[in-house]
Amino acid sequence: MTAPAQGSASVNLRSIFLDPRFWRLAPLCATCIGTAWALQGLWSAQWLTDVERLDRAGVIRHLFVMTVALSAGALLLGMTADRLRRHGVRPQTILAVVAALFITAQLALILRLPLPSYLPWSMVAAVGGANVLGYAILAEYFPKEAIGRANGALNVFQLSGAFALQYAPGLVIGHWTSETGHYPAVAYQPLSVSG
């Protein structure tokens, strides 16, 4: 277990933001969790409509399953981290595995692998609950009196990541012409090859 930072009296937001351990964690959480929130919150319905060509009922079913996956993800990741910590597995390791699985789920969507779409979208949603791992990691780095400030600082990164990652796809997708409120599937395929 990593030694906590100096006494709580000297742990303020400035010292949290200057701590190199925070900077090893915050960008990963901002990109993974921020992307999961951005995709679930704004882009999943558009993707399911424009790329998967689902009707409204199909989109709603997917969004419901994703909501359940988000809730279950937070609960299961928290319980898993607690249980595995007793066996010497740190939350950092679990977060790294979750990040790798998240990238795999995104690649499955982008490459249009022949999987039931519920599977990768549920994984995307479950990663939205991985913020519990970030909080568990911060609890190893800072004294308990400073955890609220540290969690707040991490949340700034995660929410900023979600905002930026909601905005960026719109810039790309907006280069295509919308037809009756829908964009062509190729607009969502950054790795697709034309021709």
Number of helices: 7
Question: Unreliable segments (pLDDT under 50, ≥5 consecutive)?
Answer: 191-195
Mean pLDDT: 87
Overall geometry: globular
First-to-last CA distance: 53 Å
Commentary on this structure:
- This protein has 195 residues and is an all-alpha fold.
- The chain has one domain (25-188): MFS general substrate transporter like domains (Growth Hormone, Chain: A, Up-down Bundle).
- The chain has helices spanning 13-18, 20-50, 56-85, 91-110, 118-127, 131-141, 147-173.
- Helix 2 (20-50) packs antiparallel against helix 6, helix 2 (20-50) runs parallel beside helix 7 (147-173) and helix 4 runs antiparallel to helix 5 (118-127).
- The longest helix has 31 residues, at 20-50.
Task: List the topology elements.
Elements: H1 13-18, H2 20-50, H3 56-85, H4 91-110, H5 118-127, H6 131-141, H7 147-173
Helix pairs in contact: 2-3, 2-5, 2-6, 2-7, 3-5, 3-6, 4-5, 4-6, 6-7
List the keywords.
Growth Hormone, Chain: A, globular, disordered C terminus, 7 helices, 0% strand, 195 residues, mainly alpha
Give a concise summary.
Helix content is 69%, strand content 0%.
